[in-house]
Structures are given as structure tokens and as C-alpha cells.
């Protein structure tokens, strides 16, 4: 089948989702009010609470949620066939993922920019709040450890991405200073910055940066040196005012992703490649069952609990107008989903443009698919981009830089979210050191580094990564639960959140239970214990929330 039909299907569903479904949620479910004062204005401090132009904020939110997940996840999930992968990416995004992000943002904005864990605690109780916040902290530490390792590996594998990836930092600082302190023309500055960013990509192609000699002198591997440098950077980045680095960096990254997505889709239109992936494979060699693991593997392309941390952690503190929540929360997720669709096209069709057997080599087994998924994305995507006249080498640099930049922005935001949660815990339990943003950032970085160093070669985070997918989706289910609890408390309709909540908790609970029993059977008692603890936390949080809802209903009836 021609890949253009995939683009048409996705486009129609995205238009329906944004123009019709999200408007229904905004008006009938939430009742967004542009006259209502947002936390960004009420608590404005010039550091974390900063009223922001909705398009800049969309760039921040879009790039913070769009890490490696919507790239690697759908690429691996193609082993079960392109049809189930596409349906979950598109329909899951329209009816669940984008609704989840929109809901987490809205609920946080209506609760003074608090995190979803704190909000649930306000309605359900202190015990649940503490359990939820600790679960979020653990997941954030894991995200930081894994993404640092992934970025470092990409720098080593694609040294041409180093200069543009680091070069965007001074560009972002200049952009933020010029916009907020010198009132520079936003459009002109964006165009200039984008030109400079792509000039850096061109420089990176001709000047690949290999730090192996420096690493050898220091007695480190290149990957470990990059990991150390990344955590030093995130320590400072997580504490700087959002307008100075976080917003402009994420905005510029968002613009360059739109350019690359456009190039990928235009390339697909010009090549019109045929899909070589099978429509459905129920039992690929070595793969876990398609249910529930297709949903868990794709993760961020259709739904991600980490997004709720971004929505309620950083984005809600920058929303200048409540009406902007629909653009930022819902449309932002559709942007990420469109990247997942581009990945599916690149791996299912683009990969075979110059080598008809490439797909079947990469997807011969589950082990091969996991090992080579990123290679499939880079290879297939660069094949598509060559249709617009760029060389294969430049296209590879563009795509590898895109993956690095988005992984890095997710890591930046994750460390900042850890700082916010640690600050909240410091205030709640009168732990003065955690109230200090620099000390809290230090704790966030040190705990993440400790996990990185727990295994040789910086692979510490990978120890727990097998249970992260289910835990991440479980967090999404709990974020939907927060929305249901809040909407019920203010007597608003809950169906758009309650229906996906039931489905997601069923899927993730099944996956986590299968992880638990599978790890026990293999004798991996560490992962089995982690799975069991996370599953128990979910049950406790849900039970406490149901009790609180029942108490509320009984009180209303009385």
C-alpha cells in the first residue's frame, strides 16, 4: 500500500481531534475562561512562573514531551505490524493522549500550578500525595539516567550532531535575552535563529566532534564523559529562569522539528514509497504478546504519563491565558503523534527505498528490532529526505541532531520537575535544604547520576527500563484519575477521562503483572520487586481515590 494513505488517515483524524473533539472538551467539559487569572500571572516571579506567548509555550511543551519515546517506541512496535501501530498512535493520541495532556494542564492551572501528585493529595489525602510524589520522583530519576545514556550514545555514534546540539544553547540564551529584555522582533529573530541552527547542522556534518582523546586522558569512556557533561549542564539549566534558556531552547527545537517533519512528509509525497512492513504479525519471533505490550512499547507516541509531569510541572506555570491550554496541551500532543506517524512511514516504507530487504533484516526478531530501531528511523528517514535534494549524509545529521535535541530537552525538563517536587516536599515537611532551588537541583542530579553509575558504562538506568513502559503508562492512568477526581469535585462531565482511565489502568495493570510474573520466572527478583511495588502503589492510590469520591458523593447526597 502507498504510504500516502497513512498520511491522509492521520491528517483527517488530527483535524477532527483538534477542531471538534478538543473544542468540545475545552468548552463543555472544562469551561475554559480567558478572564480567569492563571498561576503564571498570579504568582509571577520571573523564574518559574512566567506568562508566556502561547506559541513559545507550545514550543516548550511540544519539545519537552517529545523525547526519544515517540521515535524508538513506534519503530520497535512495527514488529507486530504497521496497522495496529498506526491505529494506536493516531486514535490513541486523538482520544486519550492529547486529552490526558490537556487535562493535566487544565487541572494544574486551576490549582495554582501544582503538580498532579499534590493536587490528588489535596482531594484524597496526605498519604496518597506522598506516595504519588515519590513514584513521580522515581520515574523522573529513571528518565534522566536513561536519556543521559541515550544522548551520550548518540553523540558517540553520530559525532556530527555534537556541534549543533550544543550550539543551540548559546542561540537560545541570546534568543531569550533579546525577546524578554530587548523586545526584539519575534518573527525576524526566529528566522535568524533557525538559519543559524541549520548552519550549525551544516558545520556538524563537516566537523564531527569526537571526544575520545579527552575521555582517554581523563580515564573515562567517551559515553561516561558525555554523561558527566550532560548532568553538569542540566544542573544549571534546571535552575535558570525559564525565559532565559528553557523556553527559547524548546521553541527553537520545536521549529527545527517542524522543518524536519515537513521534509519527511514532503519526501514521502515525492517518493510515494510502498509499505513493505506486514499489516499484522500476531506472534513475531521472541516478542511478548501484542496485548498489552503494543500499547506499552509505543508509549509516548500515543500516551505518556511523563507528559502529565510536564503539563503540571513547567507548562502550567507559564500559561498566560486559560484559553491557550487547548493549543498548548492538545495540539502539542498531536505534534508529537505526527512525529510517531512519520517514524512509522520511515521504518515501514522509507527504509526500503534503496534496499528492499532492509526492513526484513531489521525486523527478523524482537531482539533485532529492539537493537536496530533507531537505525531504522535514521536510515528510513534520511532516505525520505533525499527526495528534496539533500545528500544522505546531511539528512542523517539532521535526523540524529533532532533525536539528540529532543532527548536533551526532555532531560532538562525532567530535572526541573524533580526540583519542583523536591521543593514541594521541602515546604510540606519543613525540610529547609529542599526549599532551596540549587540544593534541590543538586539532589536531582546526584540521584540520577547515582543510578547511571550503578552499572558499568553508564547503563544503570537500563536496569529498570524494562518496567518503565508499563510504569509510565500507569502514571498516565493515574493522571486521568486526577482529572476525574477534580472534575467530579466541581460537578463537570467526566466521561472523556473516565472511559480511557478504565482502559489504561486495565492495560497497564496487566502489563505490570506480566512483568512481575515473568521476572519471577527468570529469577530476576529485583525487577519483579520493582514491578510489584509499582503495582501495589497503583492499587493503593486508586482505592484511596475511589473512597474519596464515594465520600464526596455521600456528602453531596446528604
Task: Give a structural overview.
It is a single chain. With 558 residues, the protein is mainly α. It has 23 helices and no strands. It has one domain (4-110, 142-452). Helix 15 (324-348) crosses helix 17 (366-385). The termini are far apart. Residues 554-558 have low confidence and may be disordered.
Give the N-terminus to C-terminus distance in angstroms. 61 Å
Overall pLDDT level:
88
Strands, count: 0
Biggest sheet architecture: none
By secondary-structure content and strand pairing, the structural class works out as mainly alpha
Query: Secondary-structure element order, as H and E?
Result: HHHHHHHHHHHHHHHHHHHHHHH
Concise summary:
It contains 23 helices and no strands. It is mainly alpha-helical and 558 residues long.
Entry keywords:
558 residues, mainly alpha
Please write out the topology:
Elements: H1 4-30, H2 39-42, H3 54-65, H4 69-77, H5 82-109, H6 116-124, H7 126-157, H8 162-181, H9 186-206, H10 212-218, H11 222-237, H12 246-271, H13 290-298, H14 305-313, H15 324-348, H16 358-362, H17 366-385, H18 392-428, H19 432-435, H20 437-452, H21 465-489, H22 495-522, H23 525-557
Amino acid at each position: 500500500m502507498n504510504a500516502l494513505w497513512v498520511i491522509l488517515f492521520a491528517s483527517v483524524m488530527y483535524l477532527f481531534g483538534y477542531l471538534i473533539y478538543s473544542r468540545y472538551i475545552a468548552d463543555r467539559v472544562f469551561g475554559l475562561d480567558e478572564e480567569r487569572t492563571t498561576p503564571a500571572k498570579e504568582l509571577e516571579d520571573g523564574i518559574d512562573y512566567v506568562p508566556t506567548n502561547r506559541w513559545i509555550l507550545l514550543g516548550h511543551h511540544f519539545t519537552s514531551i517529545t523525547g526519544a519515546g515517540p521515535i524508538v517506541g513506534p519503530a520497535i512496535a512495527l514488529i507486530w505490524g504497521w496497522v495496529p501501530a498506526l491505529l494506536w498512535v493516531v486514535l490513541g493520541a486523538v482520544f486519550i493522549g492529547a486529552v490526558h495532556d490537556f487535562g493535566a494542564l487544565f487541572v494544574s492551572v486551576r490549582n495554582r500550578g501544582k503538580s498532579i501528585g499534590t493536587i490528588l493529595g489535596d482531594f484524597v489525602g496526605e498519604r496518597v500525595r506522598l506516595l504519588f510524589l515519590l513514584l513521580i520522583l522515581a520515574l523522573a530519576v529513571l528518565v534522566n539516567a536513561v536519556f543521559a545514556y541515550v544522548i551520550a550514545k548518540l553523540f558517540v555514534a553520530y559525532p556530527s550532531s555534537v556541534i549543533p546540539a550544543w550550539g543551540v544553547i548559546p542561540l537560545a540564551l541570546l534568543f531569550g535575552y533579546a525577546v524578554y529584555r530587548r523586545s526584539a522582533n519575534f518573527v525576524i529573530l526566529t528566522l535568524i535563529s533557525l538559519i543559524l541552527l541549520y548552519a550549525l547542522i551544516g558545520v556538524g556534518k563537516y566537523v564531527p566532534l569526537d571526544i575520545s582523546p579527552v575521555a582517554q586522558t581523563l580515564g573515562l569512556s567517551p559515553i561516561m564523559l558525555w554523561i558527566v557533561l550532560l548532568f553538569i549542564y542540566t544542573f544549571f539549566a534546571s535552575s535558570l529562569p525559564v525565559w532565559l534558556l528553557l523556553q527559547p531552547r524548546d521553541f527553537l527545537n520545536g521549529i527545527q522539528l517542524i522543518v524536519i517533519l515537513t521534509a519527511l512528509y514532503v519526501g514521502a509525497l515525492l517518493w510515494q514509497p510502498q509499505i513493505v512492513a506486514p499489516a499484522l504479525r500476531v506472534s513475531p519471533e521472541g516478542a511478548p504478546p501484542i496485548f498489552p505490550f503494543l500499547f506499552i512499547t509505543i508509549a509516548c507516541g500515543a500516551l505518556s504519563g511523563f507528559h502529565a509531569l510536564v503539563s503540571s510541572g513547567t507548562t502550567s506555570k507559564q500559561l498566560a491565558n486559560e484559553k491557550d491550554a487547548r493549543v498548548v496541551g492538545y495540539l502539542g500532543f498531536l505534534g508529537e503523534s505526527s512525529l510517531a506517524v512519520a517514524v512509522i512511514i520511515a521504518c515501514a516504507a522509507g527504509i526500503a527505498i534503496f534496499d528492499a530487504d532492509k526492513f526484513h533484516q531489521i525486523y527478523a526478531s524482537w531482539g533485532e528490532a529492539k537493537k536496530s530501531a533507531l537505525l531504522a528511523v535514521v536510515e528510513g528517514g534520511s532516505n525520505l529526505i533525499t527526495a528534496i535534494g539533500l545528500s544522505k549524509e546531511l539528512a542523517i545529521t539532521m535526523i540524529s541532531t533532532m533525536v539528540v535535541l529532543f532527548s536533551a530537552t526532555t532531560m532538562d525538563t525532567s530535572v526541573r520537575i524533580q526540583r519542583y517536587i523536591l521543593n514541594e516536599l521541602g515546604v510540606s515537611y519543613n525540610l529547609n535544604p529542599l526549599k532551596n532551588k540549587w540544593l534541590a537541583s543538586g539532589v536531582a542530579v546526584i540521584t540520577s547520576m547515582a543510578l547511571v553509575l550503578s552499572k558499568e558504562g553508564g547503563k544503570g538506568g537500563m536496569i529498570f527500563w524494562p518496567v518503565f513502559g508499563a510504569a509510565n503508562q500507569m502514571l498516565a492512568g493515574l493522571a486521568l484519575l486526577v482529572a476525574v477526581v477534580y472534575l467530579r469535585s466541581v460537578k463537570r462531565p467526566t466521561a472523556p477521562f473516565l472511559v480511557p482511565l478504565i482502559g489504561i489502568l486495565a492495560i497497564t495493570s496487566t502489563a505490570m503483572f506480566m512483568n512481575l510474573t515473568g521476572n519471577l520466572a527468570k529469577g530476576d527478583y529485583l525487577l519483579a520487586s520493582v514491578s510489584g511495588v509499582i503495582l501495589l502503589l497503583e492499587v493503593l492510590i486508586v482505592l484511596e481515590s475511589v473512597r474519596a469520591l464515594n465520600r464526596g458523593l455521600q456528602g453531596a447526597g446528604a
